[in-house]
Amino acid sequence: MAGRSEAPEAALRLLGLAARAGAIVPGTERVREAARSGRLRLVVIAADASANAKEKLLPLLEKRGVGYIVAANRDALGVAVGRAPLSAVGVSDAGFARRLKALMEAESERST
After folding, report:
1. Please, what is the average pLDDT of the chain?
2. Can you point out the beta strands (E) in the chain?
């Protein structure tokens, strides 16, 4: 499930809240590890992530049945969770994942 390339501010704020709650996994390699261990509910992938990062992530996420959204850019994802630019951020909490997905879908519907 891929989403829009622009994340609404509300979704980025929610991602920051999830980070403060300890419900995220930052960075491509940590996301891959968490996906393998079954700890992720949703992954946000930066629209400007490298082809290499996407090639490492997408097949694994699809194989493991982890939903993902392509949103924002590396800088915005990093800022949202209080880190340097990130290509991917995993969400481990089901509640945060549901709300984030709903925000992104609502934004997508408004823009179509």
Report:
1. 91
2. 24-26, 42-45, 67-70, 88-91
How is the beta sheet containing 42-45 ordered, strand by strand? 24-26, 88-91, 42-45, 67-70
* pTM of the shown model: 0.90
Count of alpha carbons within 13 Å of 58, Cβ hemisphere only?
A: 14
C-alpha angle 85/88/91, rounded to 5°?
A: 120
**Residue 35 per-residue DSSP state:** H
Q: How far apart are CA 18 and CA 10, in angstroms?
A: 12
Q: Assign domain 9-111 one CATH number from 3.40.50.1820, 3.30.200.20, 3.40.630.30, 3.30.1330.30.
A: 3.30.1330.30
* Lowest pLDDT segment from 30-34, 70-74, 93-97: 70-74
> What is the token pair recorded at 47?
């629209």
Integer Cα distance of 3 and 29 in angstroms: 22
Task: Provide mean pLDDT across the span 13-35.
Answer: 97
